[in-house]
Specification:
Blueprint lengths: L1 H14 L28 E6 L2 E4 L9 E7 L2 E8 L2 E4 L5 E14 L5 E12 L2 E9 L4 E3 L2 E7 L2 E2 L3 H8 L12 E2 L9 E3 L8 E2 L24 H10 L9 H8 L7 H11 L25 H76 L4 H7 L15 H12 L1 H9 L4 H5 L2
Parallel strand pairs: 1-3, 2-4, 3-5, 4-6, 5-6, 6-7, 7-8, 7-9, 8-10, 9-12, 10-13, 11-14
Helix pairs in contact: 7-8
């Protein structure tokens, strides 16, 4: 009807069905601007050698970034990122701002890496110094000669980048390293000596003086006291599910032995690291002018804890050897029992075979004896005296005599019984 049609048209006009516009007169439809195309080349540094490479605040703005095939380069990524991928880099110095997810480092050697992130993961890297603020347990795999230290980079805007990445700067688990490929009597990582620690800051034009925003332990020139560090140790934060509480406590107390000349060489290799003319890495000093004093007590504590760790590793190695020895003994015992069972089974089978051969021989002999007679019933009749009156008794044996004589005469029937190997003698007892 006309009323129904008017209702349908009214409804379509109200909700904009079938392309009918619900805009008022005089309004113009606003077009959605197209999304700008992303040039991936702006989000990577690849195939560079001996270059100084930099990304300033706002140039990445939360995107992922890739570093690949770099050699002897100085790289500064002063922004916040979704994720960082670093592959096949050699002798490079990398300073990174805040990373919302993780930084993944693979197949790198001789690099110095500074990063503030949620996760730090590395695979097959060697002889690298790692300065991190990380909210989860740093994970290493198939890597050797690594040195860990607190995050050491400061630049204007870093505080906002840390907030954008959702990182808790006070919860830094930089020293809670989890080695996924440990080996007895091998130490794959250690902590940087406080005397070799340094800070890197970057001044930007029109910005206030930068400072380190991530809290540092007192022994590294910061304000985080031992009680705050102990709180993290006691809570067990940063460890994997497979790590037991006792293992966590043991690992948290471990500081690997540090060779002073070697640490000095690491610091010397980083000296003079610069971002333009405004940044300077100073071994043993912060940009605020703080300097370290004597470290004899620190070194004594480090050596003592390293000795404890070596003793623990030796105990684990001995335990592993004992377990392997017991396992070998169990396997040898099991193999012996299996061989004995096989031999017993073989003898049982042989006995059964021998018995079957004897029975078969008896059957063949009986068959040959029966088949030697022309008519087996002739032998039966010859062995029985069928004349009357020979034996006392009242039974009439005439019928029995007639049956035997019939069988004797029935040569075909006699041969049938012989073919089935039924002895006529057995019928006498039926």
């Amino acid at each position: 009807s006309d009323v129904y049609k008017r209702q349908v048209v009214s409804t379509q006009s109200t909700w904009g069905f079938q392309g009918i516009s619900n805009m008022k007169e005089g309004e113009k439809k606003q077009s959605v601007p197209p999304k700008p195309k992303v040039d991936r080349k702006n989000y990577m540094f690849v195939n560079q050698k001996g270059q100084e490479l930099i990304k300033k605040p706002g140039e990445i703005n939360g995107q992922a970034f890739k570093l690949e095939n770099l050699e002897d380069c100085v790289v500064y990524l002063l922004d916040h990122f979704a994720q960082i991928y670093m592959d096949n880099c050699k002798d490079c110095k990398i300073a990174v701002g805040a990373i919302k997810s993780s930084i993944q480092v693979r197949k790198c050697t001789g690099c110095t890496i500074s990063a503030c992130c949620q996760q730090f993961r590395c695979t097959d890297i060697h002889n690298c110094a790692i300065f991190v603020c990380v909210n989860s347990q740093p994970t290493i795999e198939a890597s050797t000669d690594l040195t860990f230290a607190p995050y050491n980079v400061g630049y204007p805007g870093l505080d906002e980048h840390i907030k954008s990445a959702g990182i808790d700067a006070k919860r830094n688990l930089w020293k809670y390293v989890h080695d996924m490929t440990p080996k007895p009597d091998e130490v794959h990582w250690k902590l940087l000596s406080p005397t070799a620690f340094f800070a890197v800051t970057k001044n930007l034009e029109g910005s206030p003086e930068p400072s380190l925003l991530v809290p540092l332990p007192i022994r590294y020139g910061g304000s985080q006291n031992e009680e705050e560090e102990a709180a993290l140790e006691e809570s067990g934060e940063g460890f994997s599910i497979a790590t037991t509480k006792e293992e966590a406590k043991t690992q948290m107390k471990v500081l690997e032995k540090v060779d002073a000349p070697e640490e000095k060489s690491i610091a010397d290799s980083l000296a003079g690291l610069s971002l333009g003319n405004d940044i300077e890495a100073k071994p043993g000093k912060f940009s605020t002018g703080f300097s370290f004093g004597s470290s004899d007590e620190d070194m004594e504590l480090i050596n003592k804890r390293a000795a404890t760790e070596r003793a623990r590793m030796q105990a684990l190695s001995k335990k592993y050897e004992d377990e392997q020895k017991k396992k070998a003994e169990r396997m040898e015992k099991g193999a012996t029992e299996l061989d004995d069972w096989k031999e017993s089974w073989r003898k049982t089978i042989e006995k059964k075979k021998e018995k079957n051969r004897e029975l078969q021989k008896i059957r063949e002999n009986n068959k040959a004896a029966i088949s030697g007679e022309k008519n087996a019933w002739e032998k039966v009749v010859s062995n029985i005296d069928t004349k009357e009156g020979i034996f006392p008794g009242t039974k009439d044996l005439a019928r029995m005599k007639q049956v035997m004589l019939s069988r004797k005469g029935d040569k075909k029937q006699s041969l049938t019984y012989t073919t089935h190997e039924i002895s006529p003698l057995s019928l006498i007892h039926i």
